[in-house]
Specification:
Length: 160
């Protein structure tokens, strides 16, 4: 019984950690001092000069992670979902499993030539692929593998 409660607590904390991380990363994308254009010290593309939804607010957070306004909003929304799912172990499990599947899919889409801009909406290339893949692996491990081990279910049997 103690292992089950500990697994539920771990699921809740991983949902909270992902939520806080993505909320902070999304908010960092809105701070001009933290976002730069590639190869310059300038901030992101101003709204009056952007010609599409993709270029609105385009830049690199901390000079490494490609982003735009829509991507920042998505990250903030995912972060808030993770933080609110922390209150209940059932919602935390649902969040971590959904996050793991969707962000693994986003990492794969970011590797494809046609999906690097997510159909012209937001950047999924470069460090985003690595960030999405690592976050999906962490969420999958703590939201799927550990609860299955604790409850005595063999994960490989469930996949068949």
């Amino acid at each position: 019984m103690e292992n089950i409660n500990q697994a539920k607590l771990i699921e809740r904390y991983i949902a909270l950690a992902i939520g806080i991380s993505y909320l902070l990363l999304g908010l960092a994308g809105f701070v001009p001092a933290l976002v730069s254009l590639p190869g310059t010290n300038e901030s992101f593309v101003p709204l009056d000069e952007s010609t599409s939804a993709y270029s609105a607010g385009f830049g690199y957070i901390f000079g490494a992670i490609p982003t735009n306004f829509l991507h920042n909003i998505v990250r903030c929304a995912v972060g808030l979902l993770g933080i609110t799912s922390y209150n209940n172990s059932t919602t935390a499990r649902l969040f971590t499993r959904g996050f793991a599947v969707s962000y693994a899919l986003l990492a794969v889409i970011g590797l494809l030539p046609l999906g690097k801009t997510f159909f012209g909406l937001m950047p999924l290339f470069g460090a985003n692929v690595l960030l999405n893949a690592l976050a999906a692996i962490a969420a999958g491990y703590y939201g799927i593998v550990i609860p299955a081990k604790v409850s005595g279910v063999n994960v490989s049997q469930n996949l068949q």
